[in-house]
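Narrative of activities, Objective 1.

The group set out to show that a structural description can be obtained from nothing but a protein's sequence at a throughput compatible with the screening campaign. Below is one input-output pair from the validation batch, recorded exactly as produced.
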Amino acid sequence: MQMLGVTSEALQTYDLERRPVTAAIVLANRGDGPDKVLDVVAARAPNGFKRIEDVLTKDELESTAASYKKTAGMDIDGLNNRPSIIPPPNPS
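Output recorded for this entry:
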């Protein structure tokens, strides 16, 4: 049984839309991605720490998270401005 909307054209369109996004995420992860925070913390506090706020500012944490969310397509503006993947109901 074929699912509604699943055609070779739909799959090709999906692939063309998702491949660049997926490639950007893979490249970001190869460049350290979200683990960048771990590297900064290790450099700044090689002997450990009690509170993350003693090592990183709130702005640094938020900026790193925001950058990765944008790359992954999970930022608020990106999500709100992207068209829905669910087609509107058929007004029949």
